[in-house]
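User: Thanks for the earlier help. One more: MFS family arabinose efflux permease. Can you show the sequence and predicted structure together?

Assistant: Of course, both are below.
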Amino acid sequence: MGARGRTAGCYGVTGVLNALWGATLPATDARLDLGAGRLGGLLMALAVGALVAMPVAGRLADRWTGQRLLRWTMPSASLALALTALAPSAGVLTVSAVVLGMLSGALNVALSLQAVGVERATGRPVMATMHGTWTLGAVFGGALVTAGLHVGVDVQPLLLTGAAVLFSTTLTLSRKLHPVPGPEPVCEPAQPEPRRVGLVVGLGVVGASAFLTEGAATDWAGVHATRVLGATPAVGSLVYTAFFVAMTVVRFAGDPVRARLGPALTIRIAGGTATAGYGLVLLAGATQTPRVGTAIVGWVLAGAGMAVVWPVVVSALGTSGASARRLSTVTTISYGGGLVGPALIGSVAGRAGLPTALLIPAALAVLVAAAASAVLNQCLASGETERRTPTMRST
């Protein structure tokens, strides 16, 4: 197994870890009698931990290399998952969630750097495939949790067993990772500082659009189908499944497409596809029949469109020679949008209705279609300029 296969394994294992945490939350809620308020606070603690750790992870990766950070964070995140299983109270679980969030945030940065290194070493796009492997890992982990709980396994031994297997697996993967090219030496930017900051923010907004769309589908697609369109709960869950099946399929096809069309055209088509999808979702609430079928097609298009947006952004950063610190900043903005977005949609839905709230991700899809390619071109051009003027930062 080469560097590409081992890196894909790291992505898949991380997807399993994410599923073990998320899929066991209802059972953990029942074990500790958390309730909606405490559960919301728990998820916020996880998010805050991740957002705090991501910028720090970028600085550490610039100093240590991303591969060393990956070797440290993968097993540590597995141990943090075990801590959540052992938590005897809501307070201890919240502290454990902060730790898990911090390690997961650092792990996400390390994974992106590792995949960027593989692309540099092989000269081939792999980012979309890596994220597709993550999705498969999440599906596999969720299925294991469902099966275990279905046969009567208690959530604590289930989580502890999963964490132990992940710890052993990640240690093995860590030892077998081959060195890959890291970020290039950090140079003083040839472009003015405000312009560079604007570029980082622009890339972060593009990434946040993708994560917000995914969060909207996770938390609101099924609710939209049941409460707005009158579907049964079983059909509502089908909407969720259709979205992620489309996202997974397109991610595995995304790298050859990007290699053929280039990142700018790929992301323009992706944004246009997602925009068309959201148009159908919004149209479903205004039509008579088949309302649910129209919505499902719309969510499939939205998932297919946004599937490659974040992989293309990360790959463009790697191609431009961005430092680990800059990549972690874009990651923080992007993940922040994904964490805040679903809550924002819920707030707007409570005041103006869910169809109105879904205009938020629809508008971001339009933004990606209209402006993301220009941001990507500027990112790649700035990297080319900095490589031509390598004035090293004094230390």
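User: Great, one quick takeaway?

Assistant: Residues 193-228 form the longest helix (36 residues).
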